[in-house]
Every structure is written in structure tokens, then in C-alpha cells.
């Protein structure tokens, strides 16, 4: 039996996306790799799961790598559940998701299918990391990410992660030589200033496209946005206990008549 | 001009669900109400947003209440964005989501469309509350929730909420006289033990249904699960800064060679 770690790989851009192909390539250098990823892009799916329809899974061969691969009709979170509970013959030592085509820094984490897969693995007690590159192009160049991904993944395999946490890793859109290193960060306070582009279809019915501009409201130098803007890879430990513990005392002073 | 608070109401079970009709009824007793809710059930959608397809909105009349109502083709988070950025003529004083048909306590919060709507409002800086009843039936009885909802909503209007937080409120499935009151809680540590029910379709292709059993791993008496199991309404303040601050120091000891 292999002594290599078992690594589950998934993403939200779909199993054929260049980002996941790069991630698979790196992971096969450090472990036995099983890929369970969506058969089509799932961006903006948040932490969706498929409870009212069926899931289809097919074993596929996409390149000549050493990995085993399954294409799944579900969301990124579905892929992790299916991988862990149904397809893998033992518990994975690590789950990695991405590399996402586009940023999942700061508030983007809550909309992110990439991170929902990592969180789902974390809920199952599996050390997990989501990787994203700040470049939305399908033809983005992921080369500069490779050595960082390998180093971060090996650290997680060696040290583990605190219970209830996973890592959100974002790469600046820079050449390898221009990346200054890795910064451990907190999530910046930011939001999207949305605008809805209202149009009328040929049948006279109104419809909207969601558009928006990202606004960083947080100028702390310990944030992921600062790190990315200053040429660093950002690593944010995130948790899925959402309790705002600091608010409990105040709420206990309210009177509910 | 009205001096009543402006309240945005949404949900994830769809605009005609009995749960949101009850919530609207209560909200019209304390403010001016605008409803922007999905035109069909969105359960399990997590924090999904619609970025790659169009959104349709229709003004609708569903009952004889005083509220203004819009039915939307999008997710709960889309409904909040559309309401705040496009449909409302001023900023709402409160956003309420629900009453969900089914629990959103403990780890369920991360899969919850109901809570994603409340979180979306929170990201916009609008005080927000998600309400859920621990009864998945469409014909669930929401009567016992009404006075608690009114009291909690009025407290939030009076006191506001800490920046970056929203409330996750769950009701036990009990008669009014059997509910003991309100407990401010933390999110219990729990997960789902999923099983996939594998079947074969008439064409010979395998498919899966996701099934699962909820497992509470946390026996703390300060948790939402404890409150609900002991006859209390659970109120958990939750935050969308997911940073696991307590892990940062440890991660800073790692060597990234």
C-alpha cells in the first residue's frame, strides 16, 4: 500500500479548467491524487448543495497524469461530499480546491464555490486549502503559483490545521520573479458596489444583469487585500464557526417583552 | 413621508411559502414592508449569486396585505442586492429573511439561503435577521413564532447590531405555551453524516441522491442546539469576517521554502 498522502482535488470552474489542471499537476508530485470536480463551471454558487435533484458522476481521463478523475454534475460542495463518502476508498489526508480563475480574497470568500469545497472538507475534519489567482481569464498563467502551492500544501500535510479552520490562499497576478513571498493575513473588510444593468428583451420584458465594482474599505496592512496589492501571496485561516462571540454579552442585555 | 421603518423581506423557500407570508404579516405591524423574494424554492443554494445569467423581476400581489411585493428569478442573495440597489427608493432600516421551513441552526448556517440573504444585507451595512422554524413541512404552524419575531425585530430596530454581524434565529417546533423564551447562543459544532443513495436510471446510468443524518458533536449548554432541544428560541449573532484570528500566530511559524 502506498505511503503517499491521499489528496482530493476539486474546484468550481469545472474539471477541464486550466486552474485545476495546474493544481492536479502539482499535487501528483506530493501524493496520490483523486479528482472529483464539477462537469461545468459553478462560479458564484456559494456553499450550494444538491438536495432536490440527482447527482451524476463519471470516471474520466482528461490528460496523461497519474491521478484518478471523476466528473460530477453537482456543486463543489457536492463533489467533496461524494468524494469523501462514496468514491474514495480511504479518508483523504488533504483536500485542495482551485486554482480559481479570479480572486477569492476578503468578502469574496462568502460567494466562493472554490472556498465552499474547502470548507466542506474542513467540516468533515479534513485539512483543506482553497487556491485562487487574481486573474479571471481562462488563459491565465498559473506557473508562478506552483512552487507556493507545493510549499503550502506540504506545510499543511506536515503540521495539520487547527480544528475548524481551512486556508484561503490568493495569488497576485504577477510573474514569479515579482512575487515577494507569502503573508499570513486576516480577511479585509470590503464589499461590492453593485449596479444592475436593466435591459428589455425582444419580447418587451425587462431583465437585469448584475455588475459591480469591488471596494476595499480596509486599509490595514495585515489584510489579504494589502498583501495582494503589495506583491505577496495571501494566506488567510478561515473558520466556519460563524458565531460573533463578542456580541453575545451585549445581546444578553436586550429585553424581549 | 412615513416615519415607519422600511423593512425588506425575503426568503429562500419562494415568495408564496407559508413561512414568508407569516413573516410579512408580522413586519407590516411594525413598518413599511417591501418583499423581494425568489419566484421558486432555493433551498440549499448557500450564498449563491447570479453572475452568468439574467435576472427577471415582476411586481406581484399575493395577498391583501399592505406590503409591496416583487417576485425574482434569482437567489436569496440576488433578491437582497436587487432590492437594495434597484427596487427600493431608500435604504431599508432592517432586512428579515424567512421564516425558513426547516432548521438553520449550527453548521446548517453555511448551506442556508435564508441566512445568505441576511448576510448579504449585513455586508451592505443593513441590520438583518434570518428566521427559521425547525419543521420542514410546507404546512408547518408558524403561529408560535410571531410574538418572538416582533420582539426581536423591534430590538434590532431600537439597538442596531454590531458592525459585521447579523442574527440567526431558530424556533423549536413547539406550541407557543411550550416555548420557554429566548436564549442568546453560540453556533454548536455539528455536521451531517451523509450517505449517497446510489440508483440506476432506466437507461442504465448510475445516479445518486444525497441523504444524511444530522449529528450534534457539541454538548455545550450555551449552544443553539441545546437551546432548541430544551424548548428555547435560539439567537446566534454571526459574522462574515471568517478570519480564524487565533490561528495566525501558529501559521506565522511555518517555513515556506
From TrEMBL, chains A, B:
Family matches, as Pfam families: SurE
Keywords: Cytoplasm, Hydrolase, Metal-binding, Nucleotide-binding
Swiss-Prot/TrEMBL cofactor(s): a divalent metal cation
Occurrences of domain Survival protein SurE-like phosphatase/nucleotidase (ranges): 7-194
Gene: surE
Top-level taxon of the source organism: Bacteria
Subcellular localization(s) per the UniProt record: Cytoplasm
EC number: 3.1.3.5
InterPro entries reported in the protein's UniProt record: SurE, SurE-like_Pase/nucleotidase, SurE-like_sf
Cytoplasm keyword on record: yes
Protein's name in the database: 5'-nucleotidase SurE
Native organism: Psychroserpens ponticola
HAMAP family hit by this protein: SurE
Reaction(s) catalysed (UniProt annotation): a ribonucleoside 5'-phosphate + H2O = a ribonucleoside + phosphate
Reported function: Nucleotidase that shows phosphatase activity on nucleoside 5'-monophosphates.
Family from the record: Belongs to the SurE nucleotidase family.
Class of the enzyme per the UniProt entry, highest EC level: hydrolase
Single annotated GO MF: 3'-nucleotidase activity
Cofactor binding: number and manner: Binds 1 divalent metal cation per subunit.
Residues that bind a divalent metal cation: 12-13, 43, 100
Amino acid at each position: 500500500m502506498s505511503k503517499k498522502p491521499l489528496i482530493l482535488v476539486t474546484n468550481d470552474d469545472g474539471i477541464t479548467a486550466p486552474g485545476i489542471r495546474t493544481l492536479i499537476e502539482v499535487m501528483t508530485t506530493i501524493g496520490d491524487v483523486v479528482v472529483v470536480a464539477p462537469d461545468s463551471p459553478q462560479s458564484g454558487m456559494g456553499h450550494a448543495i444538491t438536495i432536490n435533484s440527482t447527482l451524476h458522476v463519471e470516471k474520466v481521463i482528461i490528460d496523461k497524469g497519474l491521478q484518478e478523475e471523476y466528473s460530477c454534475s453537482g456543486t463543489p460542495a457536492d463533489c467533496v461530499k461524494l468524494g469523501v463518502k462514496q468514491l474514495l476508498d480511504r479518508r483523504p489526508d488533504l483536500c485542495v480546491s482551485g486554482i480559481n480563475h479570479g480572486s477569492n480574497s476578503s468578502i469574496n470568500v462568502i460567494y466562493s464555490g472554490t472556498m465552499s469545497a474547502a470548507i466542506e472538507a474542513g467540516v468533515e475534519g479534513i485539512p483543506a486549502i482553497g487556491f485562487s489567482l487574481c486573474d479571471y481569464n481562462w488563459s491565465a498563467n498559473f506557473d508562478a503559483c506552483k512552487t507556493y502551492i507545493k510549499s503550502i500544501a506540504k506545510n499543511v500535510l506536515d503540521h495539520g490545521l487547527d480544528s475548524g479552520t481551512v486556508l484561503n490562499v490568493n495569488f497576485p497576478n504577477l510573474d514569479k520573479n515579482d512575487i515577494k513571498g507569502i503573508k499570513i493575513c486576516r480577511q479585509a473588510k470590503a464589499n461590492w458596489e453593485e449596479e444592475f444593468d436593466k435591459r428589455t428583451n425582444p419580447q418587451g420584458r425587462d431583465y437585469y444583469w448584475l455588475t459591480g465594482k469591488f471596494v476595499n474599505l480596509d486599509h490595514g496592512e495585515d489584510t489579504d487585500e494589502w498583501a495582494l496589492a503589495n506583491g505577496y501571496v495571501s494566506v488567510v485561516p478561515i473558520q466556519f464557526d460563524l458565531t460573533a462571540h463578542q456580541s453575545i454579552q451585549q445581546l444578553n442585555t436586550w429585553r424581549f417583552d
